[in-house]
Amino acid sequence: MNTRTTKRISVLALLLTFALLTVSAANASSGEVMWEVYNRDSGETMSANLIMTITNSRGAVRERRIAQYRMDKNGVESKLMFFLSPSDVRNTSFLSFSYEDGRSDDQYIYLPALRRVKRIASDSKNDSFMGSDFTYDDMGSRHPDLDTHTVLRKETVDGVSTLVVESIAKGDEDYPRTLSWVVEGEWFGLKKEFYLPDGTLGKTLTIDEYEAIDGIYVITDMTMRNLEENTCTRIQMENVEFNQNFDDSFFSERQMKIGPRR
Fold this sequence. Notes:
Radius of gyration: 18 Å
CATH architecture: Clam
CATH topology: outer membrane lipoprotein receptor (LolB), chain A
Number of helices: 4
Largest sheet: 14 strands, antiparallel
Distance between the termini: 27 Å
Structural class: mainly beta
Strand content: over 45%
Order of helices and strands: HEHEEEEEEHEEEEEEEH
CATH superfamily: Lipoprotein localisation LolA/LolB/LppX
């Protein structure tokens, strides 16, 4: 079965799935490169377990275990995350909807201590996601039309040929300029740099391991480093399964309160 679905640009998208496509990078314009990244095959449904390791500026380490589910259907990417441990975040859940038509993401978090679901306001999407070096915006998706893209050069990273793409935000952003190293012909990122308004490098995202699962490239180990705060967050992925049996009703506020599938 052909499971080609629309996939939007986001940090967790780079984490989860990267497809092999047949378009030649040599013939792709700057904008087309990022659209190929955006449109790659990711499977219609997927589940996985995540290990999030957060290291603060003093070297203290916290580890969090997460169950994640994703569905890409009818122009909407739905993602649901359940925090399993440790006890201070257990039963917290996060729900995100990203839209192919370019609408802003809808995001919600369930806080068990308050027993209610809270919508993430647009002015809070650059806040830290659950104390990590990722933001709520990173957890969602970024439409290519929100930036102006330029292919700067070709560069080899760990023996792999990549296109270095500069993206300049059209609106106000905490990181108005980014650089992405995109694998030629396969259209997934090997690393990304985030620049502050004054031009200094603020954050880096590095991909340390990836593998093909059911014909789809999956990032299984990545690290976000905040150079201003001297902190980092590593996310590892395990037990990845595609073509799972769940539908629209699973991605709901009700399910956020119930918890992950057993």
